[in-house]
Specification:
40% helix; 21 strands; binds 1,4-dihydronicotinamide adenine dinucleotide; Aldehyde Dehydrogenase, Chain A, domain 2; binds magnesium ion; 7-stranded mixed β-sheet; 6-stranded mixed β-sheet; 15 helices; 2 domains; alpha/beta; 20% strand; 480 residues; Aldehyde Dehydrogenase, Chain A, domain 1
Length: 480
């Protein structure tokens, strides 16, 4: 069976769909069927230049609109995306290969909510503050923003940049991942459909080291907001530094989940597996290191092995399946190689999921390793697949040391039946977001990394502020 291949080879620049100046296309595969489902433009540096020029031309007029006018545009886009929800869910599912509940509630539901949240923020955020002494501080849009995004939550990551940038009065050039570019294309069709002023949103498809690198190093790019691997993030920051261009970086993680000895182990371990395996482990904030009391290790392993049997891997469209394929054959090989490395370094396989029945699809069954120590590669490197490392500790002090012993600092979790003890440990973990027990994210909670997990924060008012410059206006003394 051959799928229809959608040809989507034009770029969106200055309010029009235009041909790329280059030749050739990039193939997009459905990871569950391994079939090519679409081709997109293999963009060029010239395409990137044209998009930056369009964004630069459009920016002053966009910034001059009132905040409520910009909020109205975001709400129109939200309404258009809400009306297109089923279609967006189908596109993401074909592109990313994730189960339907994740595709609907998270991959599409969260960005829909965020479009509205940033519309509201545009209207309530104090862009201009002047006190009774006449001290006046203004927050102005940073200007032209390049948004470079990855493949794991493609629409969410894009909207978390685009929506606050537009709310702030910036214009954007979107450079979605070449691996899952289809939801970004659909979003931009919706942008075109609502008649947003030309040049406010532009999209250039292509490879990172060509289009992404050109955008990051362009003298007219005022800011690069990047999400992806730490290696690519470092290159983007280096290119941006050439023009002292601002960067926001949302990078990798190796997030710890400390289970203290007074925690409800059943609940903590079950939740820990869920937060490691979400999106088949392809999540930057995945809790991939479970740090547990050594004298409860056997009990915890037994719970983990039992809970793993609840996971069903297979065709993501089938009801009850909670683990789809990995994104690509490259990613599958990468994850398999880490499973081999873990065994070779002396980690002990506690349990492994049942392989998928399907004949096609980049599936890797989930695996849980124990007796992991901090010097092992599976304790240090971002695997981006369904692999959990269990690291035993002897006392609370050592648990904190292990938790902080990586180059990353994105997310974390602490489990304890004593809220004060949990809070004490939470404050000692170097990470941008720490959850206690089943603590829930509140809407707009700042998200981002310490250490090599990134620079800056996304979401909520902190996310909006990334796209704002601060200006002090010094008023003359009043004349008597
Ligand atoms: P990547 O970091 O290469 O790609 C992310 C985005 O950056 C894409 O749009 C890509 O085109 C762009 N890019 C790549 N190189 C660039 C450059 N030199 N200049 C400008 N833009 C560039 O991620 P990739 O290769 O798809 O995945 C590799 C690994 O990265 C994964 O196995 C995973 O460990 C990690 N990753 C982490 C993510 C996170 O959310 N923390 C998301 C995706 C990947
Ligand atoms: Mg790449």
């Amino acid at each position: 069976m051959t799928a229809t291949i959608i040809e989507h080879t034009r770029q969106y620049i200055g309010g029009a769909w235009v041909n790329s100046t280059g030749e050739g296309v990039i193939e997009v595969r459905n990871p569950a069927t391994e079939q090519v489902i679409a081709v997109v433009a293999k963009g060029t540096e010239d395409d990137a230049d044209a998009a930056v020029a369009a964004a630069k031309a459009a920016q002053p007029a966009w910034a001059r609109l009132s905040t409520s006018e910009r909020a109205t545009w975001l709400r129109r886009l939200q309404a258009a995306a809400a009306a297109d929800r089923e279609n967006l869910v189908r596109i993401i599912q074909d592109d990313v290969g994730c189960p339907t509940p994740l595709a609907d509630h998270v991959q599409v539901g969260v960005p829909l909510a965020n479009l509205g949240a940033f519309a509201d923020l545009a209207e309530t955020y104090p862009f201009d503050e002047q006190d009774t002494e006449g001290r006046w501080v203004r927050r102005e849009p940073v200007g032209v923003v390049a948004c470079i995004t990855p493949w794991n939550f493609p629409l969410h990551q894009l909207v978390l940049k685009m929506a606050p940038a537009l709310a702030a009065g910036c214009t954007v050039v979107l450079k979605p991942t070449e691996v899952t570019p289809l939801s970004a294309l659909r979003l931009v069709e919706l942008v075109d459909g609502i008649g947003l002023p030309p040049g406010v949103v532009n999209l250039v498809n292509g490879f990172g080291p060509v289009v992404g690198a050109r955008l990051a190093g362009h003298p007219d790019t005022d800011m690069v907001s990047f999400t992806g691997s730490t290696a690519a993030g470092k290159r983007v920051a280096a290119l941006a530094a050439g023009n002292v261009t601002r960067v926001a970086l949302e990078l990798g993680g190796k997030s710890p989940n400390i289970i203290l000895d007074d925690a409800d182990l059943e609940v903590a371990v079950r939740d820990g597996l869920a937060w490691c395996f979400v999106n088949s482990g392809q999540t930057c904030s995945a809790l991939t290191r479970m740090i547990v009391p050594r004298d409860r290790l056997a009990e915890i392993e037994e719970i983990a092995a039992r809970e793993l049997r609840e996971y069903r891997i297979g065709d993501p469209r089938k009801p009850g399946v909670n683990l789809g394929p990995l994104i690509s054959d490259v990613q599958r090989e990468r994850v398999r190689s880490y499973v081999d490395v873990a065994a070779a370094e002396g980690a002990r396989l506690v349990a492994c999921g049942t392989p998928a029945d399907e004949q096609t699809g980049y599936f890797v069954p989930p695996a849980i390793f124990s007796d992991v120590t901090t010097d092992m590669r599976i304790a240090q490197e971002e695997i981006f697949g369904p692999v959990l490392a269990i690291l035993p500790y002897d006392d609370e002090e050592q648990a904190v040391t292990i938790a902080n012993d990586t180059v990353y600092g994105l997310a974390a979790c602490v489990w304890s039946s004593d809220p004060d003890r949990a809070a004490r440990v939470a404050t000692r973990i170097r990470a941008g977001q720490v959850r206690i027990n089943d603590g829930d994210r509140w809407p707009g909670a700042p998200f981002g990394g310490m250490k090599q997990s990134g620079l800056g924060r996304e979401d909520g008012s902190h996310g909006l502020e990334e796209f704002l410059e601060i200006k002090a206006i010094l008023l003359p003394k009043p004349t008597a």
